[in-house]
Amino acid sequence: MKDTVYLLIKVVIETNYKNIQDAIGDVQRNTVYTVMDSKNVRIINSKIMDLRTKRK
User: Fold this and answer.
1) What angle do CA 32, 37, 41 make, to 5 degrees?
2) Torsion of CA 24, 29, 31, 34, to 10 degrees
3) Are 24 and 51 in contact (CB under 8 A)?
4) pTM over 0.85
5) pLDDT tens column, 16-34
6) CB of 36 within 8 A of CB of 46?
7) How far apart are CA 51 and CA 54, in angstroms?
8) In the chain, which ranges are continuous DSSP H helix?
9) Is there a contact between 56 and 19 (Cβ–Cβ < 8 Å)?
């Protein structure tokens, strides 16, 4: 069976940025992750989905 699953991560940050959107973008650009196959699951593709935040 082929399907799509979404994995969420929780990241607690402390930042000197004045806008949280800048901090989020920085974290997204600098994130490195590994998703591996298991005995019963083969990873076909993975990507970090950008969180689109609006600036006020």
Assistant:
1) 130
2) 130
3) yes
4) no
5) 999 998 999 899 899 999 9
6) no
7) 10
8) 20-29
9) no
